Q: What sequence folds into this?
């Protein structure tokens, strides 16, 4: 049975996702970690087995909408010190019963008594170590940088301990005093029958202390707000809207608590020629009409240059050729997607009179027109490695004998 300590563990951290992660993101993270720590893969590894149990316990809660909602409420109250010492602790008027907490964690193998340190309960003191907040930043990338990966700097908001008051929040030479309203506990309690409800003290804001002479630099906060530059390595192939996690680069924790994480959301500019379809890249290539009819070669652009395509005789307009391994880089270095090249007709702006005459003869002989897409243009599809599938088809029927221009 895996145990969970809310003052030390976090279900979101166990699954390596943020508190705002979607259900799909949670499911993907769970599958990835479950595969990594599965006992069949890590035979005899007790640490991996324990982690596997914790991952399953976390997913059992976060994959259920009701359990996750109630866990989020408990998590919020824990972070604000909203539990009281006593026989039962308490959510009381918050509408969350202790029986419900048993439902939340019982089936996941998380022991309810661990939430409150036994029957006596636990109250986190205002001065206890607290994890810093996660922060988010937006990063705008060119299409090329997103495909190749880039290491860059992002500006993120953060806080730093005030040097003038040594993070106490009080003017130098003075010190905070215990809050007379809550007696320095940081919380006030209301008894409701057998249960009790603790809430942050309004007089001190849950800090358990009062500052008579706030520091002039930080105005009693104990820290100052700043903006800092953080180096971020963006992996190759990121998509628009990807959230890249940088551990430990969020806000610093209180009372030597661990820092939060930085989440960088990528915004990828569109490319003038390529469009992205998952891990594949798509491009439209115009080729001469004669190449489609007679067959030949064509040069298609790629991210790092170009590639030669073999065009089969009688290839229809809008046929898509597939070039393997020339698409976008896949996540975690698992190769690349494919390049999808759709062929279109290149229409010259100026045509010599001799060529026009030859084209008219071609039209009469085949009963077709370049404007209509040429012979066999009714088909479509994809081919492997630039070789169009299907035969060229008939080049149309000749005119009846005896008919002249």
A:
């Amino acid at each position: 049975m895996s145990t969970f300590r809310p003052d030390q563990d976090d279900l979101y951290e166990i699954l390596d996702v943020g508190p705002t992660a979607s259900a799909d993101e949670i499911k993907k993270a769970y599958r990835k970690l479950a595969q990594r720590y599965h006992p069949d893969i890590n035979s005899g590894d007790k640490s991996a087995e324990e982690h596997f149990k914790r991952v399953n316990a976390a997913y059992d809660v976060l994959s259920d909408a009701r359990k996750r909602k109630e866990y989020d409420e408990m998590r919020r109250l824990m972070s604000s010190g909203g539990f009281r010492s006593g026989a039962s602790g308490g959510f009381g008027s918050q509408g969350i019963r202790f029986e419900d907490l048993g439902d939340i964690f019982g089936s996941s193998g998380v022991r309810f008594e661990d939430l409150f340190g036994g029957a006596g309960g636990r109250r986190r003191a205002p001065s206890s170590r607290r994890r810093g907040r996660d922060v988010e930043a937006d990063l705008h990338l060119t299409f090329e940088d997103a495909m190749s990966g880039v290491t860059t700097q992002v500006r993120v908001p953060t806080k730093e301990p005030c040097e003038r008051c040594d993070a106490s929040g009080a003017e130098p030479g003075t010190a905070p005093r215990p809050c007379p309203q809550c007696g320095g506990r940081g919380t006030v309690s209301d008894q409701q029958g057998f249960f009790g409800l603790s809430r942050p003290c309004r007089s001190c804001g849950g800090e358990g202390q009062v500052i008579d002479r706030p520091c002039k630099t930080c105005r009693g906060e104990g820290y100052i707000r700043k903006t800092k530059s953080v180096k971020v390595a963006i992996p190759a192939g990121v998509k628009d809207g990807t959230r890249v996690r940088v551990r430990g680069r969020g806000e610093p924790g209180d009372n030597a608590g661990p820092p939060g994480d930085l989440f960088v959301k990528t915004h990828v500019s569109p490319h003038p020629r390529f469009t992205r379809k998952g891990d594949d890249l798509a491009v439209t290539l115009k080729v001469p009409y004669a190449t489609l009819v007679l067959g030949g070669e064509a040069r298609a652009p790629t991210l790092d240059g170009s590639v030669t395509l073999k065009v089969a005789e009688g290839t229809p307009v809008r046929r898509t050729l597939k070039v393997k391994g020339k698409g976008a880089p896949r996540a975690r270095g698992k190769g690349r997607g494919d390049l999808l090249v759709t062929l279109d007709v290149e229409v010259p702006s100026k045509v010599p009179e001799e060529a026009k005459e030859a084209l008219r003869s071609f039209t009469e002989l085949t009963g077709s027109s370049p404007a209509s897409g040429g012979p066999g243009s009714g088909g479509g599809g994809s081919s492997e490695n630039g070789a169009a599938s299907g035969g060229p088809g008939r080049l149309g029927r000749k005119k009846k004998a005896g008919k002249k221009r």
The chain has a mean pLDDT of 77. The two ends are 91 Å apart (CA to CA). The first helix runs from residue 11 to 14.
